[in-house]
Amino acid sequence: MSEEARPHRTAAVIPAAGRGVRLGPGAPKALRTLGGTPMLIHAVRAMAASRAVSLVVVVAPPEGAPEVKNLLDEHALPERTDYLVVPGGETRQESVRLGIEALPDGITTVLVHDAARPLVPVDTVDAVVEAVRDGAPAVVPALPLTDTVKQVEPREKGEPEPVVATPERALLRAVQTPQGFDREMLQRAHRSETAVGEGATDCAGMVERLGAPVVVVPGHEEAFKVTRPLDLVLAEAVLARRRANDGF
């Protein structure tokens, strides 16, 4: 079958095996509640809200796959989308690789989404999928920076750090998820990274290390990452506003 005739099918991989220590003690970050519902469920619903996404693969903590499977079964999710839970690895990169390996044949586009970005709008998801389907091997949603950024010479924690450069802010973007990939390119990037060891901080960085192009599409201010307690307060406020205005 020619590339043009090959049907496009999209799956989302959500690594949710991390503990999220910066949010403080308690349940793993992905299982913390937001508006009474675990963040992971919000993230799964955000991916499934896109009609382009036919499968969502959740990569659970290595010993917690049954618990996560039960969690998905307990919450209402779009019926047009299939769901799969697989055990993760010791690192995020390993967990994403295990999620990719679980994909069935026929998937051509893969989204990799942070469970800690529970409120990404469907328009952002669709924009990433469309850019991959239009031929980009790797796509990231991103926002322009509002703060000035300084490159420093690292010191021990708490010590003053000398500034060595001030990058031009207009050329910088803060990257979000879901990141989208041609499946074959993403698999190639993970094979290469496994061979050389971990280094890139996200899948797009792994593709960059291959010398392949990565493009940026507009992100969204509500696609922020819930990492610290203050982020959770902001996420609760965004969710409350959505429910009041849109019946979300």
From TrEMBL:
It comes from the Bacteria. Keywords: Nucleotidyltransferase, Transferase. Its EC number is 2.7.7.60. This is 2-C-methyl-D-erythritol 4-phosphate cytidylyltransferase. It comes from Streptomyces scopuliridis. The lineage of its organism: Bacteria, Bacillati, Actinomycetota, Actinomycetes, Kitasatosporales.
